[in-house]
Amino acid sequence: MEKEEIKQLTCTKISQWRNWLERNHLKEDKVLLIRYKKHTGKGMFNQRDAMNEAICFGWIDTTLKRIDDDMYGVTFVKRKKSSRWSENTFARAREMIAQGKMSAFGKEMFELGLTKKTHDHGIPKNPDMPEDLKAELEKAKNKKARENFEKLPPSQKRMYFRWLLGAKRTETRIKRVGIIINNMETGKRLGVNQSANL
């Protein structure tokens, strides 16, 4: 079976990304948005802004793919009518609506999403640190991870707690604890590829 090829798109300005979405959000199903890494010195809009524009047109980011030492790509796809939203994505959509940026299709997907439970339904919005993560961070070998975690702003800690609590299976939860520890040791943030695939 041949691997499906994804159309690639390079934008250095957020207006270029929005223009592409405006023209293609109905006729295309997915695109790989190419992004330059910081060390290249090439100016790029941030991932949050890219995500917000996608929400305006009924699209969502899914996976992250390394291309080479200078570039990586983020796959964006058109939402399916059956897809469920997160509380965070709803909040972003409301922000875009308030700014008058939401397209007709984006609003249709938003209103459809409101009829379903969110995929983080039942997870507290401001949870305490899960005991399994706390136990790992308290281990002597994870001292660096613990110190870096303590430096995170409350919003990022909350994001990690809710991501961990969202795991449906024990093995998934164990993997997520490992990813959090690794991210704290290496200075990484929770990436779209991690949050979407685990």
Description:
This protein has 198 residues and is an alpha+beta fold. It has two domains: 8-113, no CATH class; 131-197, no CATH class. The protein has nine helices and four strands, in the order βαβαββααααααα. β1 (8-10), α1 (14-24) and β2 form a beta-alpha-beta unit. The protein starts with 7 loop residues before the first strand and ends with a helix.
Q: Key features?
A:
single chain; 198 residues; 2 domains; four-stranded mixed β-sheet; 47% helix
Summarize this, please?
The protein is built from nine helices and four strands. The chain is α+β, with helices and mostly antiparallel strands. A four-stranded mixed beta sheet has the order 1-2-4-3.
**Silhouette:** globular
**Order of helix and strand elements from N to C terminus:** EHEHEEHHHHHHH
Structural class: alpha+beta
Uncertain segments: 192-198
Overall mean pLDDT score?
86
Sequence of strands across the biggest β-sheet: 1-2-4-3
The gyration radius over C-alpha positions equals: 18 Å
Number of strand elements: 4
- Alpha-carbon distance between the two ends: 25 Å
Count structural domains.
2
Instruction: Characterize the main sheet.
Output: 4 strands, mixed
Beta-strand content = 5-15%
Q: Roughly what percent helix?
A: 40-55%
What's the oligomerization state?
single chain
- The total count of helices amounts to 9
Mind sketching the topology for me?
Elements: E1 8-10, H1 14-24, E2 30-36, H2 47-56, E3 59-66, E4 71-78, H3 87-98, H4 104-113, H5 131-137, H6 143-150, H7 154-165, H8 170-186, H9 192-197
Parallel strand pairs: 1-2
Antiparallel strand pairs: 2-4, 3-4
